[in-house]
């Protein structure tokens, strides 16, 4: 009975978030460029409800990075880190198997609930927790012969601040995680296989 009540409360909370975002967005959503792929110290910020001017895509070539969006709102305290690490690892393995660069964006909406690429942002209480959980996930999800390679390709999460429309603090971030392929000739042979993990 308690589990059912928790599920209903969580669903109601999600519905409220969707209504708020829809109410705060207008028909005049502005386009913005994504954070440069290889940059970590630029002062770029996102404005809530603006639209990232890049579509989700698979590997087009070995240079242009692919992108994937996750609203990352349908989570609880118990499931948030599990969802974050599993999505990053899954996306990263797909990038490596496709021999391409890629960025997965948490806090960016997609259809049908949002406009494709809509900046939502997520509340981040402890940035180090994301970094630490991701490091441990590498060792749990990848086979022994892939762990060192994964540490080479995986980059630390980047927390891009989201501002309100009047450019004041919105207390949210877009969490971006980049996978960077090996240089030509250094790429390890074989597929990257993700182990099934019981949480």
Name its key features.
199 residues, alpha/beta, two-stranded parallel sheet
Summarize this entry quickly.
It comes from Channa striata. The chain has four helices and seven strands; from the N terminus they run H-E-E-E-E-H-E-H-H-E-E. The model has no long low-confidence stretch (mean pLDDT 78).
End-to-end gap: 22 Å
What's the quaternary structure here? single chain
Average residue-wise pLDDT: 78
**How many domains, as an integer?**
1
Main beta sheet: 5 strands, mixed
Shape: globular
Class by SSE composition? alpha/beta
What order do the SSEs take from the amino end to the carboxyl end, as H and E? HEEEEHEHHEE
Number of strands: 7
Protein name: Schlafen AlbA-2 domain-containing protein
Organism: Channa striata
Tell me about this structure.
The chain has 199 residues and is an alpha/beta fold. The chain has one domain (28-179). It is built from four helices and seven strands; from the N terminus they run H-E-E-E-E-H-E-H-H-E-E. The protein has helices at 2-24, 80-98, 127-141, 144-153, and strands at residues 31-32, 46-47, 51-52, 66-70, 102-106, 158-163, 169-179. The strands form two sheets. Strands 2-6-7-5-4 form a five-stranded mixed sheet, covered by helices on one side. Helix 2 links the parallel strand 4 and strand 5 (102-106). Helix 2 packs across helix 3 (127-141). It is globular, with a radius of gyration of 18 Å. The mean pLDDT is 78.
């Amino acid at each position: 009975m308690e589990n059912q009540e928790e599920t209903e409360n969580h669903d109601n909370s999600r519905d409220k978030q969707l209504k708020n975002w829809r109410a705060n967005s207008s028909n005049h959503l502005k386009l913005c460029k994504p954070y440069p792929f290889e940059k970590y110290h630029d002062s770029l910020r996102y404005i809530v409800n603006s639209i990232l001017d890049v579509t989700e895509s698979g590997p087009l070539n070995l240079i242009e990075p692919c992108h994937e969006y996750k609203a990352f709102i349908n989570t609880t305290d118990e499931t948030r880190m599990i969802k974050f690490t599993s999505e990053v690892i899954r996306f990263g393995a797909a990038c490596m198997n496709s021999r391409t660069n890629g960025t997965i964006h948490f806090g960016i909406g997609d259809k049908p609930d949002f406009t494709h690429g809509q900046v939502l942002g997520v509340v981040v209480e402890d940035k180090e927790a994301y970094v630490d959980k991701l490091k441990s996930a590498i060792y749990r999800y990848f086979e022994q012969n892939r762990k060192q390679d994964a540490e080479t390709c995986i980059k630390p999460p980047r927390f891009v601040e989201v501002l309100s429309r009047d450019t004041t603090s919105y207390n949210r971030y877009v969490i971006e995680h980049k996978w960077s392929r090996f240089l030509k000739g250094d790429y390890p042979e074989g597929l990257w296989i993700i182990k099934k993990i019981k949480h």
